[in-house]
Protein backbone atom coordinates (compact mmCIF):
# COMPACT_ATOMS: atom_id res chain seq x y z
CA UNK A 1 0.00 0.00 0.00
CA UNK A 2 1.48 3.37 -0.99
CA UNK A 3 1.35 6.51 1.16
CA UNK A 4 -1.71 7.98 -0.59
CA UNK A 5 -3.68 4.73 -0.18
CA UNK A 6 -2.66 4.55 3.48
CA UNK A 7 -3.84 8.12 4.11
CA UNK A 8 -7.13 7.35 2.40
CA UNK A 9 -7.63 4.27 4.59
CA UNK A 10 -6.86 6.23 7.76
CA UNK A 11 -9.29 8.96 6.71
CA UNK A 12 -11.96 6.32 6.22
CA UNK A 13 -11.31 4.90 9.70
CA UNK A 14 -11.54 8.39 11.23
CA UNK A 15 -14.97 8.83 9.66
CA UNK A 16 -16.32 5.50 10.93
CA UNK A 17 -19.16 5.51 13.42
CA UNK A 18 -19.37 2.39 15.63
CA UNK A 19 -22.11 0.10 14.42
CA UNK A 20 -23.04 2.32 11.49
CA UNK A 21 -20.18 2.05 9.01
CA UNK A 22 -18.29 4.98 7.46
CA UNK A 23 -19.84 8.41 7.84
CA UNK A 24 -20.99 9.99 4.59
CA UNK A 25 -18.97 13.06 3.56
CA UNK A 26 -20.28 16.63 3.69
CA UNK A 27 -20.54 18.81 0.59
CA UNK A 28 -20.30 22.59 0.22
CA UNK A 29 -20.93 24.22 -3.16
CA UNK A 30 -19.86 27.87 -3.27
CA UNK A 31 -21.20 29.58 -6.38
CA UNK A 32 -20.30 33.17 -7.31
CA UNK A 33 -22.49 35.22 -9.65
CA UNK A 34 -20.94 36.83 -12.77
CA UNK A 35 -17.36 36.35 -11.52
CA UNK A 36 -14.86 36.44 -14.36
CA UNK A 37 -12.22 33.84 -15.14
CA UNK A 38 -9.47 36.25 -14.11
CA UNK A 39 -11.01 37.75 -10.96
CA UNK A 40 -9.04 35.78 -8.35
CA UNK A 41 -5.44 36.10 -7.34
CA UNK A 42 -4.80 32.45 -8.16
CA UNK A 43 -6.08 33.13 -11.70
CA UNK A 44 -3.78 36.09 -12.14
CA UNK A 45 -5.68 39.23 -11.14
CA UNK A 46 -3.07 41.90 -10.35
CA UNK A 47 -5.13 44.02 -7.93
CA UNK A 48 -7.81 41.90 -6.25
CA UNK A 49 -6.58 40.06 -3.16
CA UNK A 50 -8.25 36.71 -2.53
CA UNK A 51 -6.03 34.93 0.03
CA UNK A 52 -8.68 32.45 1.20
CA UNK A 53 -9.68 31.21 -2.24
CA UNK A 54 -6.02 31.20 -3.24
CA UNK A 55 -5.29 29.01 -0.21
CA UNK A 56 -8.20 26.75 -1.10
CA UNK A 57 -6.62 26.33 -4.54
CA UNK A 58 -3.25 25.52 -2.95
CA UNK A 59 -4.87 22.95 -0.66
CA UNK A 60 -6.63 21.17 -3.49
CA UNK A 61 -7.05 21.41 -7.24
CA UNK A 62 -7.44 24.44 -9.52
CA UNK A 63 -8.82 23.94 -13.02
CA UNK A 64 -7.98 26.09 -16.01
CA UNK A 65 -10.70 24.56 -18.22
CA UNK A 66 -13.64 24.64 -15.82
CA UNK A 67 -17.02 25.41 -17.37
CA UNK A 68 -20.32 26.62 -15.97
CA UNK A 69 -23.39 24.85 -17.37
CA UNK A 70 -24.44 28.01 -19.26
CA UNK A 71 -23.38 31.63 -19.73
CA UNK A 72 -26.37 33.21 -17.94
CA UNK A 73 -27.87 32.83 -14.49
CA UNK A 74 -30.97 30.62 -14.49
CA UNK A 75 -29.83 27.89 -16.92
CA UNK A 76 -26.45 27.70 -15.21
CA UNK A 77 -28.17 26.92 -11.90
CA UNK A 78 -30.51 24.45 -13.55
CA UNK A 79 -27.52 22.61 -15.02
CA UNK A 80 -25.65 22.47 -11.72
CA UNK A 81 -28.58 21.13 -9.70
CA UNK A 82 -29.80 18.58 -12.27
CA UNK A 83 -26.55 17.51 -13.96
CA UNK A 84 -28.31 18.16 -17.29
CA UNK A 85 -27.93 20.88 -19.88
CA UNK A 86 -30.64 23.44 -19.15
CA UNK A 87 -32.40 22.89 -22.47
CA UNK A 88 -32.71 19.21 -21.61
CA UNK A 89 -33.88 20.12 -18.10
CA UNK A 90 -36.56 22.44 -19.47
CA UNK A 91 -35.26 25.82 -18.26
CA UNK A 92 -32.91 27.28 -20.91
CA UNK A 93 -33.68 30.98 -20.32
CA UNK A 94 -33.48 33.48 -17.48
CA UNK A 95 -36.40 34.11 -15.14
CA UNK A 96 -37.45 37.56 -13.96
CA UNK A 97 -39.40 38.76 -10.91
CA UNK A 98 -42.70 38.49 -12.81
CA UNK A 99 -41.92 35.22 -14.63
CA UNK A 100 -44.22 32.24 -14.35
CA UNK A 101 -42.95 28.70 -14.06
CA UNK A 102 -39.61 27.37 -12.98
CA UNK A 103 -37.46 24.26 -13.01
CA UNK A 104 -39.90 21.53 -14.11
CA UNK A 105 -41.18 19.53 -11.17
CA UNK A 106 -40.31 16.34 -13.04
CA UNK A 107 -36.60 17.17 -12.67
CA UNK A 108 -34.67 15.52 -9.84
CA UNK A 109 -32.30 17.93 -8.13
CA UNK A 110 -29.01 17.11 -6.44
CA UNK A 111 -30.51 18.33 -3.18
CA UNK A 112 -33.47 15.93 -3.48
CA UNK A 113 -31.08 13.10 -4.26
CA UNK A 114 -28.92 13.78 -1.19
CA UNK A 115 -31.85 14.59 1.07
CA UNK A 116 -33.35 11.21 0.25
CA UNK A 117 -30.10 9.59 1.40
CA UNK A 118 -30.27 11.21 4.83
CA UNK A 119 -28.39 14.45 4.17
CA UNK A 120 -29.30 17.65 5.97
CA UNK A 121 -29.59 20.26 3.22
CA UNK A 122 -29.66 24.04 2.97
CA UNK A 123 -29.61 26.62 0.17
CA UNK A 124 -28.39 30.12 0.98
CA UNK A 125 -28.44 32.92 -1.57
CA UNK A 126 -29.78 33.43 -5.06
CA UNK A 127 -32.31 30.78 -6.11
CA UNK A 128 -33.48 31.89 -9.59
CA UNK A 129 -35.22 28.62 -10.48
CA UNK A 130 -38.84 29.67 -10.04
CA UNK A 131 -40.85 31.48 -7.38
CA UNK A 132 -44.38 32.27 -8.60
CA UNK A 133 -45.65 29.04 -7.06
CA UNK A 134 -44.58 27.50 -3.76
CA UNK A 135 -43.89 24.23 -5.57
CA UNK A 136 -40.86 25.83 -7.25
CA UNK A 137 -39.26 27.13 -4.05
CA UNK A 138 -36.11 25.57 -2.54
CA UNK A 139 -37.95 23.85 0.33
CA UNK A 140 -39.96 21.88 -2.23
CA UNK A 141 -36.85 21.01 -4.30
CA UNK A 142 -34.89 19.10 -1.69
CA UNK A 143 -33.66 21.75 0.75
CA UNK A 144 -34.56 21.50 4.44
CA UNK A 145 -33.80 25.20 4.85
CA UNK A 146 -33.54 28.25 2.64
CA UNK A 147 -32.42 31.85 3.18
CA UNK A 148 -31.82 34.32 0.39
CA UNK A 149 -33.11 36.18 -2.67
CA UNK A 150 -35.37 34.37 -5.10
CA UNK A 151 -33.72 36.00 -8.14
CA UNK A 152 -30.98 38.46 -9.13
CA UNK A 153 -30.16 41.44 -6.93
CA UNK A 154 -30.74 43.93 -9.79
CA UNK A 155 -34.33 42.83 -10.46
CA UNK A 156 -35.81 45.98 -8.94
CA UNK A 157 -36.31 49.54 -10.25
CA UNK A 158 -34.53 51.35 -11.83
CA UNK A 159 -32.75 48.39 -13.44
CA UNK A 160 -35.80 46.21 -14.09
CA UNK A 161 -39.42 47.26 -14.59
CA UNK A 162 -41.35 45.46 -11.88
CA UNK A 163 -43.60 46.28 -8.96
CA UNK A 164 -42.32 43.37 -6.88
CA UNK A 165 -39.97 44.36 -4.05
CA UNK A 166 -36.64 42.63 -3.55
CA UNK A 167 -37.03 40.53 -0.41
CA UNK A 168 -35.06 38.10 1.67
CA UNK A 169 -36.92 34.83 2.15
CA UNK A 170 -36.56 32.28 4.89
CA UNK A 171 -37.94 28.93 3.88
CA UNK A 172 -41.30 29.61 2.20
CA UNK A 173 -41.95 33.17 3.38
CA UNK A 174 -40.50 36.65 2.81
CA UNK A 175 -38.99 38.01 6.03
CA UNK A 176 -37.64 41.46 5.14
CA UNK A 177 -37.14 43.92 2.31
CA UNK A 178 -33.68 44.60 0.92
CA UNK A 179 -32.83 48.27 0.57
CA UNK A 180 -29.12 48.04 1.41
CA UNK A 181 -27.17 45.11 -0.05
CA UNK A 182 -23.81 46.00 1.47
CA UNK A 183 -23.94 43.24 4.13
CA UNK A 184 -25.75 40.62 2.09
CA UNK A 185 -22.63 38.51 1.47
CA UNK A 186 -21.73 38.61 5.16
CA UNK A 187 -25.24 37.56 6.18
CA UNK A 188 -25.05 34.58 3.85
CA UNK A 189 -21.79 33.59 5.50
CA UNK A 190 -23.33 33.83 8.96
CA UNK A 191 -26.20 31.59 7.89
CA UNK A 192 -23.74 29.07 6.47
CA UNK A 193 -21.76 28.90 9.71
CA UNK A 194 -24.97 28.49 11.73
CA UNK A 195 -26.05 25.63 9.47
CA UNK A 196 -22.68 23.86 9.77
CA UNK A 197 -22.77 24.14 13.55
CA UNK A 198 -26.35 22.89 13.83
CA UNK A 199 -25.70 19.95 11.49
CA UNK A 200 -23.55 18.41 14.20
CA UNK A 201 -22.33 14.98 13.13
CA UNK A 202 -25.02 14.55 10.49
CA UNK A 203 -23.82 14.63 6.86
CA UNK A 204 -24.84 17.86 5.18
CA UNK A 205 -25.10 19.51 1.77
CA UNK A 206 -24.73 23.30 1.72
CA UNK A 207 -25.45 25.11 -1.55
CA UNK A 208 -24.38 28.76 -1.36
CA UNK A 209 -25.02 30.73 -4.58
CA UNK A 210 -23.88 34.25 -3.70
CA UNK A 211 -25.77 37.28 -5.04
CA UNK A 212 -22.55 38.99 -6.12
CA UNK A 213 -20.47 40.16 -7.90
CA UNK A 214 -23.61 40.45 -10.06
CA UNK A 215 -24.48 44.13 -10.38
CA UNK A 216 -25.15 46.23 -8.41
CA UNK A 217 -21.96 45.40 -6.53
CA UNK A 218 -21.73 46.39 -2.89
CA UNK A 219 -19.48 45.94 0.12
CA UNK A 220 -19.65 46.86 3.83
CA UNK A 221 -18.53 50.41 4.64
CA UNK A 222 -15.43 49.20 6.48
CA UNK A 223 -14.31 47.21 3.43
CA UNK A 224 -14.87 49.89 0.80
CA UNK A 225 -11.72 51.39 -0.67
CA UNK A 226 -9.45 48.50 0.31
CA UNK A 227 -9.04 47.10 -3.17
CA UNK A 228 -7.14 48.78 -5.97
CA UNK A 229 -9.80 47.39 -8.30
CA UNK A 230 -12.48 49.75 -6.98
CA UNK A 231 -15.89 48.74 -5.65
CA UNK A 232 -15.91 45.60 -7.78
CA UNK A 233 -12.65 44.54 -6.13
CA UNK A 234 -14.04 45.37 -2.68
CA UNK A 235 -17.01 43.12 -3.44
CA UNK A 236 -14.81 40.20 -4.46
CA UNK A 237 -12.56 40.64 -1.44
CA UNK A 238 -15.62 40.61 0.85
CA UNK A 239 -16.79 37.37 -0.74
CA UNK A 240 -13.32 35.90 -0.26
CA UNK A 241 -13.30 36.90 3.42
CA UNK A 242 -16.70 35.25 4.00
CA UNK A 243 -15.52 32.06 2.31
CA UNK A 244 -12.48 32.20 4.58
CA UNK A 245 -14.81 32.30 7.60
CA UNK A 246 -16.68 29.22 6.33
CA UNK A 247 -13.47 27.28 5.69
CA UNK A 248 -12.18 28.29 9.12
CA UNK A 249 -15.34 26.93 10.72
CA UNK A 250 -14.78 23.58 9.03
CA UNK A 251 -11.27 23.50 10.41
CA UNK A 252 -12.34 24.45 13.94
CA UNK A 253 -14.94 21.69 13.95
CA UNK A 254 -12.53 19.09 12.59
CA UNK A 255 -14.52 18.66 9.37
CA UNK A 256 -11.82 19.36 6.76
CA UNK A 257 -11.27 15.68 6.02
CA UNK A 258 -14.99 15.00 5.89
CA UNK A 259 -15.99 17.82 3.55
CA UNK A 260 -15.64 18.29 -0.19
CA UNK A 261 -15.71 22.02 -0.98
CA UNK A 262 -16.33 23.19 -4.55
CA UNK A 263 -16.11 26.74 -5.87
CA UNK A 264 -17.07 28.12 -9.28
CA UNK A 265 -18.93 30.99 -10.93
CA UNK A 266 -22.27 30.70 -12.71
CA UNK A 267 -20.89 32.38 -15.85
CA UNK A 268 -18.38 34.96 -16.98
CA UNK A 269 -18.35 38.71 -16.25
CA UNK A 270 -21.08 41.06 -17.43
CA UNK A 271 -19.46 43.31 -20.04
CA UNK A 272 -20.93 45.90 -22.42
CA UNK A 273 -23.58 46.86 -19.91
CA UNK A 274 -26.98 47.91 -21.27
CA UNK A 275 -27.82 51.56 -20.61
CA UNK A 276 -30.55 50.54 -18.13
CA UNK A 277 -27.85 49.29 -15.76
CA UNK A 278 -25.95 52.59 -15.58
CA UNK A 279 -28.00 54.03 -12.73
CA UNK A 280 -27.73 54.50 -8.95
CA UNK A 281 -23.96 54.53 -9.02
CA UNK A 282 -23.37 51.52 -11.30
CA UNK A 283 -20.33 52.28 -13.48
CA UNK A 284 -19.30 50.61 -16.76
CA UNK A 285 -16.12 49.33 -15.11
CA UNK A 286 -17.95 47.61 -12.22
CA UNK A 287 -17.34 44.27 -13.87
CA UNK A 288 -14.95 41.38 -13.84
CA UNK A 289 -11.94 40.20 -15.79
CA UNK A 290 -12.05 37.50 -18.43
CA UNK A 291 -8.24 37.42 -18.48
CA UNK A 292 -7.05 36.38 -21.96
CA UNK A 293 -10.42 34.88 -22.94
CA UNK A 294 -12.75 36.24 -25.62
CA UNK A 295 -16.35 37.23 -24.92
CA UNK A 296 -18.26 37.48 -21.65
CA UNK A 297 -21.56 36.65 -19.99
CA UNK A 298 -24.36 35.98 -22.46
CA UNK A 299 -22.07 34.70 -25.22
CA UNK A 300 -20.78 31.32 -26.35
CA UNK A 301 -17.19 32.51 -26.42
CA UNK A 302 -14.89 31.15 -23.73
CA UNK A 303 -15.28 34.26 -21.59
CA UNK A 304 -18.96 33.47 -21.11
CA UNK A 305 -18.64 29.82 -20.09
CA UNK A 306 -15.13 29.25 -18.72
CA UNK A 307 -14.93 30.21 -15.04
CA UNK A 308 -12.74 29.88 -11.93
CA UNK A 309 -13.16 26.31 -10.70
CA UNK A 310 -11.68 24.96 -7.45
CA UNK A 311 -12.02 21.74 -5.45
CA UNK A 312 -10.71 20.96 -1.95
CA UNK A 313 -11.07 17.85 0.17
CA UNK A 314 -8.28 17.44 2.71
CA UNK A 315 -6.83 13.93 2.65
CA UNK A 316 -8.68 12.99 -0.54
CA UNK A 317 -7.64 15.62 -3.08
CA UNK A 318 -3.85 16.00 -3.09
CA UNK A 319 -2.78 19.60 -2.50
CA UNK A 320 -1.20 21.94 -5.01
CA UNK A 321 -2.66 20.54 -8.22
CA UNK A 322 -3.38 22.60 -11.34
CA UNK A 323 -5.22 20.80 -14.12
CA UNK A 324 -6.04 21.83 -17.67
CA UNK A 325 -8.49 18.92 -17.99
CA UNK A 326 -12.05 19.79 -19.01
CA UNK A 327 -14.62 19.84 -16.18
CA UNK A 328 -18.02 21.46 -15.65
CA UNK A 329 -20.53 22.26 -12.92
CA UNK A 330 -22.67 19.70 -14.77
CA UNK A 331 -20.30 17.18 -13.19
CA UNK A 332 -21.21 18.11 -9.61
CA UNK A 333 -24.27 15.83 -9.48
CA UNK A 334 -22.51 12.55 -10.43
CA UNK A 335 -19.36 13.48 -8.49
CA UNK A 336 -21.17 14.17 -5.22
CA UNK A 337 -23.37 11.13 -5.75
CA UNK A 338 -20.32 8.90 -6.14
CA UNK A 339 -18.65 10.44 -3.09
CA UNK A 340 -21.80 9.71 -1.06
CA UNK A 341 -21.98 6.14 -2.40
CA UNK A 342 -25.21 6.81 -4.30
CA UNK A 343 -26.29 5.58 -7.72
CA UNK A 344 -27.50 8.19 -10.18
CA UNK A 345 -31.28 8.56 -10.65
CA UNK A 346 -32.55 6.26 -13.37
CA UNK A 347 -34.77 6.99 -16.33
CA UNK A 348 -33.09 10.19 -17.56
CA UNK A 349 -30.04 11.33 -19.48
CA UNK A 350 -27.39 13.10 -17.43
CA UNK A 351 -24.72 15.27 -19.01
CA UNK A 352 -22.31 15.19 -16.09
CA UNK A 353 -19.43 12.86 -15.25
CA UNK A 354 -17.94 11.54 -12.01
CA UNK A 355 -14.75 13.54 -11.39
CA UNK A 356 -13.61 11.71 -8.24
CA UNK A 357 -10.85 9.67 -9.93
CA UNK A 358 -9.43 12.88 -11.39
CA UNK A 359 -9.78 14.86 -8.15
CA UNK A 360 -8.14 12.13 -6.11
CA UNK A 361 -5.29 11.83 -8.66
CA UNK A 362 -6.14 8.22 -9.43
CA UNK A 363 -6.07 9.32 -13.06
CA UNK A 364 -4.74 12.39 -14.82
CA UNK A 365 -7.57 12.42 -17.35
CA UNK A 366 -11.03 13.86 -16.99
CA UNK A 367 -13.98 11.69 -18.03
CA UNK A 368 -15.35 14.81 -19.74
CA UNK A 369 -14.14 14.91 -23.34
CA UNK A 370 -16.65 17.39 -24.72
CA UNK A 371 -18.77 20.38 -23.78
CA UNK A 372 -21.72 22.09 -25.49
CA UNK A 373 -22.11 25.88 -25.49
CA UNK A 374 -25.77 26.92 -25.30
CA UNK A 375 -27.15 30.44 -25.40
CA UNK A 376 -30.70 30.00 -24.24
CA UNK A 377 -32.12 27.10 -26.25
CA UNK A 378 -29.66 27.71 -29.09
CA UNK A 379 -26.64 25.45 -29.34
CA UNK A 380 -23.88 27.58 -30.87
CA UNK A 381 -20.64 25.70 -30.24
CA UNK A 382 -19.09 22.38 -29.30
CA UNK A 383 -15.72 21.52 -27.80
CA UNK A 384 -14.04 18.14 -28.26
CA UNK A 385 -10.62 17.82 -26.69
CA UNK A 386 -8.68 20.95 -27.66
CA UNK A 387 -10.96 21.76 -30.61
CA UNK A 388 -13.88 24.19 -30.49
CA UNK A 389 -16.23 24.73 -33.42
CA UNK A 390 -18.59 27.71 -33.19
CA UNK A 391 -21.38 28.67 -35.55
CA UNK A 392 -23.87 31.26 -34.22
CA UNK A 393 -26.89 32.34 -36.24
CA UNK A 394 -25.92 33.25 -39.78
CA UNK A 395 -22.25 33.61 -38.91
CA UNK A 396 -19.66 31.52 -40.69
CA UNK A 397 -18.49 28.52 -38.69
CA UNK A 398 -15.10 28.93 -37.02
CA UNK A 399 -12.63 26.45 -35.54
CA UNK A 400 -10.23 27.17 -32.68
CA UNK A 401 -7.55 25.13 -30.94
CA UNK A 402 -8.15 26.14 -27.33
CA UNK A 403 -4.88 24.83 -25.94
CA UNK A 404 -2.79 26.86 -28.39
CA UNK A 405 -5.28 29.70 -28.67
CA UNK A 406 -7.47 30.04 -25.55
CA UNK A 407 -8.35 33.59 -26.60
CA UNK A 408 -10.08 32.32 -29.78
CA UNK A 409 -8.14 34.75 -31.93
CA UNK A 410 -7.23 32.48 -34.84
CA UNK A 411 -9.81 30.63 -36.91
CA UNK A 412 -8.12 27.54 -38.36
CA UNK A 413 -11.14 26.00 -40.11
CA UNK A 414 -9.44 26.53 -43.49
CA UNK A 415 -6.33 24.65 -42.38
CA UNK A 416 -8.12 21.90 -40.48
CA UNK A 417 -10.99 21.17 -42.84
CA UNK A 418 -11.57 17.60 -41.70
CA UNK A 419 -11.86 18.60 -38.03
CA UNK A 420 -14.14 21.53 -38.88
CA UNK A 421 -16.42 19.36 -41.01
CA UNK A 422 -16.66 16.66 -38.36
CA UNK A 423 -17.51 19.12 -35.59
CA UNK A 424 -19.96 21.00 -37.81
CA UNK A 425 -21.77 17.70 -38.29
CA UNK A 426 -21.66 17.03 -34.57
CA UNK A 427 -23.11 20.47 -33.87
CA UNK A 428 -25.97 19.91 -36.34
CA UNK A 429 -26.77 16.51 -34.81
CA UNK A 430 -26.76 17.83 -31.23
CA UNK A 431 -29.04 20.71 -32.18
CA UNK A 432 -31.66 18.13 -33.11
CA UNK A 433 -30.84 15.60 -30.38
CA UNK A 434 -31.03 17.92 -27.33
Describe the structure using short key phrases.
19% strand; alpha/beta; four-stranded antiparallel beta sheet; single chain; Alkaline Phosphatase, subunit A; 434 residues; 2 domains; Arylsulfatase, C-terminal domain; ten-stranded mixed beta sheet
Protein architecture, described:
This protein has 2 domains: 25-368, Alkaline Phosphatase, subunit A (3-Layer(aba) Sandwich); 377-433, Arylsulfatase, C-terminal domain (2-Layer Sandwich). α6 runs parallel beside α7 (230-252). The chain has helices at 3-15, 51-59, 73-82, 86-89, 110-115, 184-199, 230-252, 302-305, 332-339, 356-359, 417-433, and strands at 16-17, 21-22, 26-32, 61-67, 120-124, 145-149, 167-170, 173-177, 204-209, 259-265, 309-312, 321-328, 370-375, 378-384, 387-390, 398-401. By secondary structure, it is an alpha/beta fold. It has a 10-stranded mixed beta sheet with strand order 8-7-6-5-9-3-10-11-4-12. Strands 13-14-15-16 form a 4-stranded antiparallel beta sheet, covered by helices on one side.
Q: By helix and strand content, what is the structural category?
A: alpha/beta
Write down the CATH class of the largest domain.
Alpha Beta
CATH topology of the largest domain: Alkaline Phosphatase, subunit A
Give helix and strand order, one letter per element, not per position: HEEEHEHHHEEEEHEHEHEEHHEEEEH
Ends apart, CA distance between termini: 45 Å
The number of strands is 16
Helix content: 25-40%
Q: Helical stretch count?
A: 11
Portion of residues in beta strands equals: 15-25%
CATH homologous superfamily classification of the largest domain: Alkaline Phosphatase, subunit A
Strand order of the largest sheet: 8-7-6-5-9-3-10-11-4-12
Which second-level CATH architecture of the largest domain applies? Answer: 3-Layer(aba) Sandwich
**Biggest sheet layout:** 10 strands, mixed
Residue runs with pLDDT of under 50 for 5 or more positions: 1-20
Described by the principal axes of the CA atoms, the overall outline is globular
What is the subunit arrangement here?
single chain
- How many structural units, i.e. domains? 2
Amino acid sequence: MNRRELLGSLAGLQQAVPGRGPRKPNFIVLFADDMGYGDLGCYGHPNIRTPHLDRMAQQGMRFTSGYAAASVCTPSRAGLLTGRYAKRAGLPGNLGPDSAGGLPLSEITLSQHLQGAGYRTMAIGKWHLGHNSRSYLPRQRGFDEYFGLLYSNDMIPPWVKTEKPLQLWRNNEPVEGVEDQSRLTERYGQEAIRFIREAGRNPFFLYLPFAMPHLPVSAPAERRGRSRAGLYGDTIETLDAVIGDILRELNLRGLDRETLVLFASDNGPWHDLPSRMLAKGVEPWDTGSKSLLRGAKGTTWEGGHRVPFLARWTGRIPAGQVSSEMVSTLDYFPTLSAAAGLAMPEGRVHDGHNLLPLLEARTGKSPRTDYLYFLGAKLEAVREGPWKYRQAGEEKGELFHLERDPGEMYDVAGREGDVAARLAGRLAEDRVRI
